[in-house]
Structures are given as structure tokens and as C-alpha cells.
Design goal:
The chain has helices at about 10-35, 45-70. It has about 70 residues and is mostly helical. The radius of gyration is 17 Å and the shape is elongated. About 10% of the residues are buried. Keywords: Membrane, Transmembrane, Transmembrane helix.
Length: about 70
């Protein structure tokens, strides 16, 4: 007897979407702070914008490829 498939997105896809969203919030915060005239932006915020966004995108793409390979 086969186990029923879980409906919805895989957990890796959910994590990727969440990280990408957090990264985009960080990118928006950096742009807003820079446009407001702040020059000394927090390093952790810039690092989060530069690392979390592509990490979330990569995890989402990996989840898509895994799902496509599993279905074929």
C-alpha cells in the first residue's frame, strides 16, 4: 500500500520562498535607507540582502528541479 502524497508545496520550496521574501524585505530596507540619505548602513542588513535573497532563490529552484524529476 503506497503512502498518500501530501498536497501543497514541498518544505524546501516553502523555505526558499520565505528566505527570498525576507531577502527582498532587506533589499527594500537598504534602498529606502540609502534614499533617505543614510550613508553608514548596518553591515548585517547589507549582508542579509546580499546572501538571503539568492539563497532563497537557489533553494526554490532546487525544489522545482527535484519536483520535476520526481514527477517524470
Amino acid at each position: 500500500m503506497a503512502a498518500p502524497e501530501k498536497p501543497g508545496k514541498p518544505i524546501l520550496m516553502r523555505v526558499g520562498i520565505g528566505l527570498f521574501a525576507l531577502g527582498m524585505i532587506a533589499v527594500t530596507a537598504v534602498f529606502v535607507m540609502f534614499a533617505a540619505g543614510l550613508e553608514n548602513l548596518p553591515v548585517w542588513l547589507s549582508a542579509a540582502a546580499g546572501v538571503i535573497t539568492p539563497l532563497g532563490l537557489a533553494l526554490g529552484l532546487i525544489a522545482l528541479v527535484r519536483e520535476a524529476r520526481r514527477k517524470s
